[in-house]
Amino acid sequence: MYTLDTNPIIYSINNEEEVVARLEALFVQAVPLYTSTITELELFSYLALTEAEGTLIEVFLRQVRIIPVFSHIARMAGDLRRSYPRLKSFNSAVAATALFTNSTLVTRNTRDFEQIDDLLLLPI
């Protein structure tokens, strides 16, 4: 099981070959793939987002299960934020989503996440 951070999705949509290949390998495994509503927010909040990019994001997100940041995950994220003060709020919610789903976080942003105990990372 894997939780996708925002950056692998962006790089995939931008057709970065290495990332596309790595994500395709995950999809082929037929294991659950998750992302957070925070990632969805980040993807759609890009100021220069074109209609075509928005469509690509929508198509991509239909292939994964979007986990809402409900109260339990929000509290987990708050705990992470207190334990790791350098961790930004959005990243704490994404990390909490991965921990909640017992999945490995797929990210290029390993520096921000590697400090978190028990969080498995798949650098991409």
TrEMBL record:
Its cofactor is Mg(2+). It comes from the Bacteria. This is PIN domain-containing protein. SUPFAM superfamilies: PIN domain-like (SSF88723). The keyword Hydrolase applies. It comes from Entotheonella factor. It holds the Pfam family PIN. The keyword Isomerase does not apply. Keywords: Hydrolase, Magnesium, Metal-binding, Nuclease, Toxin-antitoxin system. Residues 3-118 form the PIN domain. Signal peptide: none annotated. Belongs to the PINc/VapC protein family. GO terms for molecular function: hydrolase activity; metal ion binding; nuclease activity.
